[in-house]
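Quick one: C-alpha coordinates for this chain, please?
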Amino acid sequence: MAIVDYISDDNPDAAQRLKDEIEAKVSELPNHPKMYKLGRVTGTREIVICANYVVVYTEKSKIVSILRILHAAQQWP
Protein backbone atom coordinates (compact mmCIF):
# COMPACT_ATOMS: atom_id res chain seq x y z
CA MET A 1 0.00 0.00 0.00
CA ALA A 2 2.95 2.35 0.55
CA ILE A 3 3.71 2.29 -3.18
CA VAL A 4 0.11 3.06 -4.09
CA ASP A 5 -0.06 5.86 -1.50
CA TYR A 6 3.14 7.38 -2.83
CA ILE A 7 1.94 7.33 -6.45
CA SER A 8 -1.50 8.64 -5.52
CA ASP A 9 0.04 11.89 -4.27
CA ASP A 10 0.82 12.79 -7.90
CA ASN A 11 -1.56 10.62 -9.90
CA PRO A 12 -4.50 8.94 -8.14
CA ASP A 13 -5.72 7.25 -11.34
CA ALA A 14 -2.33 5.64 -12.02
CA ALA A 15 -2.16 4.50 -8.40
CA GLN A 16 -5.56 2.82 -8.68
CA ARG A 17 -4.61 1.11 -11.96
CA LEU A 18 -1.40 -0.21 -10.39
CA LYS A 19 -3.27 -1.48 -7.33
CA ASP A 20 -5.88 -3.20 -9.52
CA GLU A 21 -3.23 -4.88 -11.69
CA ILE A 22 -1.24 -6.11 -8.69
CA GLU A 23 -4.39 -7.51 -7.06
CA ALA A 24 -5.53 -9.19 -10.28
CA LYS A 25 -2.23 -10.95 -10.90
CA VAL A 26 -1.61 -11.91 -7.28
CA SER A 27 -5.15 -13.30 -6.90
CA GLU A 28 -4.30 -16.01 -9.46
CA LEU A 29 -1.28 -17.29 -7.50
CA PRO A 30 -3.11 -19.77 -5.24
CA ASN A 31 -4.46 -21.57 -8.32
CA HIS A 32 -1.40 -21.18 -10.57
CA PRO A 33 1.70 -20.51 -8.46
CA LYS A 34 4.12 -21.56 -11.21
CA MET A 35 2.54 -19.27 -13.81
CA TYR A 36 5.24 -16.63 -13.54
CA LYS A 37 8.97 -16.78 -14.24
CA LEU A 38 11.65 -18.02 -11.90
CA GLY A 39 13.12 -15.26 -9.76
CA ARG A 40 16.64 -13.90 -9.68
CA VAL A 41 17.00 -15.33 -6.17
CA THR A 42 16.88 -19.13 -5.87
CA GLY A 43 13.50 -20.35 -4.64
CA THR A 44 11.56 -17.28 -5.74
CA ARG A 45 9.32 -16.35 -8.64
CA GLU A 46 8.56 -12.91 -10.07
CA ILE A 47 5.55 -11.19 -11.57
CA VAL A 48 6.27 -8.13 -13.71
CA ILE A 49 3.66 -5.43 -13.16
CA CYS A 50 3.43 -2.48 -15.59
CA ALA A 51 7.11 -2.91 -16.58
CA ASN A 52 8.16 -0.88 -13.51
CA TYR A 53 7.20 -3.12 -10.60
CA VAL A 54 8.06 -6.70 -9.71
CA VAL A 55 6.22 -8.87 -7.18
CA VAL A 56 8.64 -11.39 -5.64
CA TYR A 57 7.05 -14.49 -4.11
CA THR A 58 7.69 -18.05 -3.02
CA GLU A 59 5.45 -21.10 -3.18
CA LYS A 60 5.88 -24.13 -0.97
CA SER A 61 3.38 -26.86 -0.19
CA LYS A 62 0.55 -24.90 -1.84
CA ILE A 63 1.33 -21.80 0.27
CA VAL A 64 2.20 -18.63 -1.62
CA SER A 65 4.10 -15.91 0.24
CA ILE A 66 4.61 -12.43 -1.21
CA LEU A 67 8.10 -11.35 -0.19
CA ARG A 68 8.39 -7.90 -1.73
CA ILE A 69 7.03 -5.55 -4.32
CA LEU A 70 9.94 -3.72 -5.89
CA HIS A 71 10.35 -0.87 -8.30
CA ALA A 72 12.35 -2.18 -11.26
CA ALA A 73 15.25 0.14 -10.35
CA GLN A 74 15.62 -1.46 -6.88
CA GLN A 75 18.11 -4.22 -6.23
CA TRP A 76 16.93 -7.58 -4.87
CA PRO A 77 17.96 -8.85 -2.34
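The chain has a mean pLDDT of 90.
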